[in-house]
Amino acid sequence: MAKNDILGDSLWDAYSDKVTTLMNNPQHQGEITEEEAASHGNKLIVADFGAESCGDAVRLYWEIDPKTDKIVNSKFKSFGCGTAIASSDVMTELCIGKTVQEAVKITNIDVELALRDTPDVPAVPPQKMHCSVMAYDVIKKAAGLYMGVDAESFEEEIIVCECARVSLGTLQEVIRLNDLTTIEQITDYTKAGGFCKSCIKPGGHEAREYYLVDILADTRKQMDEEKMAAAADAGASGDFEGMTLVQQIKAIDAVIDESVRQFLVMDGGDMEVIDIKNSDEYIDVYIRYLGACNGCASSSTGTLYAIESTLKEKLSSKIRVLPI
Amino acid sequence: MQVYMDNNATTMVDPEVLEAMIPYFKEQYGNPNSLHKFGTASHPAISKAIDQAYTAINAADEDDIIFTSCATESNNWVLQSVWIDKILNGDKNHIVTTEIEHPSVLSTCKFLEDQGVKVTYLPVNEQGVVEAHTVRSFITEKTALVSVMWANNETGMIFPIQEIGEICKEKEVLFHTDGVQAVGKIPVDMQAVNVDFMSMSAHKFHGPKGIGALYIKNSQELSPLLHGGEHMGGRRSGTLNVPFIVGMGKAMELATTDMEAKMAAIRAKRDRLEDALLEAIPETFTVGDRDNRTPNTILISIRGVEGEGMLWDLNNGQIGASTGSACASEDLEANTVMLAIGADNELAHTGIRLSLSRFTTDEEVDYVINHFKDAVSRLRAISSSYAKVQPTPGGEVQECELHH
Q: What is the ipTM of this complex?
């Protein structure tokens, strides 16, 4: 929230002139009958999407020339608000003259663009972007009926945010590449979740199969697991610098057990690893002497040198050993 | 002509109210708490407003009417302070309310639920009313408060406040009612009902926005929501909003003087409008029994016409109305009141509320009837619900597949 958001939007003032004009006077509102289509030797397809109980419903009519698969005429009926009616009107406009195969490529983004007065100003406010999605859905359904296939077969990828048409694959990739951690970042990078907000989390305007919160959580979890797996691999392959802290401690303990401790114990002493600090330049290993080593003259000279050079040789040249 | 038919949202300030307020902006602007005469000069006007408020709702002298900034504040005050007094600092843990309260009650209840309070949201019957026996059955030994509105903003339906008050008295539970849609529209007599707290708002009865009140029976305990000074006996701090208090008092007086006659006039216009719409437009119905409704309100459902689309056409016809089902809201659920009364899902997106006032004229009613009919014809001509050609087999939709 800031100064410009205090009053809130005046919803209808944010509509483009085109939306207003088409709501007031839709050009392709109406029906096409079976007889009418047959009299031209054409096939009629009628498809519904949505329902009154959703608050939005559209019925799309296509008169198709069966020889060319071309949509020669199209009409619509709509139960919905102004943007739903205007979107339906532009949708029929976009369908006319296209083949069915071309028409299925029309998306809600195309519908919204066609409703704009100027190319870079949205035709409707964010919460109304969703109205044009129905147009896209009903086209798929009509095409499926004509071609005798399932409407979902036209969908090549899983669309998570329908308003901005962002796929699951894109979202996962963007989260990974940019190391995103918040929903706001996802919206900034992809526009997903920036419109009707249904896809952000359950409980919004419509139920979704995938939600951004889950995708983010799952992808982050996967990234963490991969990081762990990479570290584990590094351990197995002896890449000390790629190891996790726990693995580094274990590796150091193993080297000390194998090559150092026996000599200390012989003199009545011992040591323990306290901490490890990784920086670009050094890997600092903090140790504490125990027993006779504690206070022994060579503990800060010869013994220390021996421990450090063993670790350097066996694990990493970046290691420095620091007694505390 | 332009016609405002959204008087349950807010009303025009009565010119007499405005006139009464003006001197307290200009000449008598003193702080009533000051010792000097600039301050005390406003006291007679404030006393008069207090008298007007007490008379309007027939409050007893032992009761308090505390001016607040709005009914949202009054509702918050009661719910939050009962929580502090009876739940945090007492042995109660439960609040009873209804599922169709105003958001200032429902959101506060949700907030209290987050703080660990148990809240019961009572359902309404097919008339949109919570029945008294339902309230009784949900009160427990741990119930601190019952909060039930006096009349509903969307349907105008009047709740059995008298009976619920008796039940609360018997069960020794505090009773709050949001009286925003009742005061100024129907007779409200605080000595005839057992109500502990009642919220009011001036702009719903031709007073100014930004002033409300809370009635408190017997001046009983209720921790302040706003701390700061000793204004209004320390019950609600903040410099007294003198011109608005004067305006609210005047508005209450104007709304309740000769109320029967005023309401009969509004009711006659409302009934004429309702009859004309129901007769002229097939497949419409109104919600709730007329005799048990505030006399200015109609909630009408028009099959096949989506609420926001209808508002758009009415707005083009210079008519201001409202819908509880605007598909613009973030949560596009159907109108909760319509769903609560058991309306089909299909009709829950088709509700239009028309609310009149004492300033509504017969010409305005005629104008709305005509434009309403035109808008319905136009939108039904576009509507898929009235389409004749049936979908290609496989192209039908049985039920809502979009929303949950």
A: 0.87
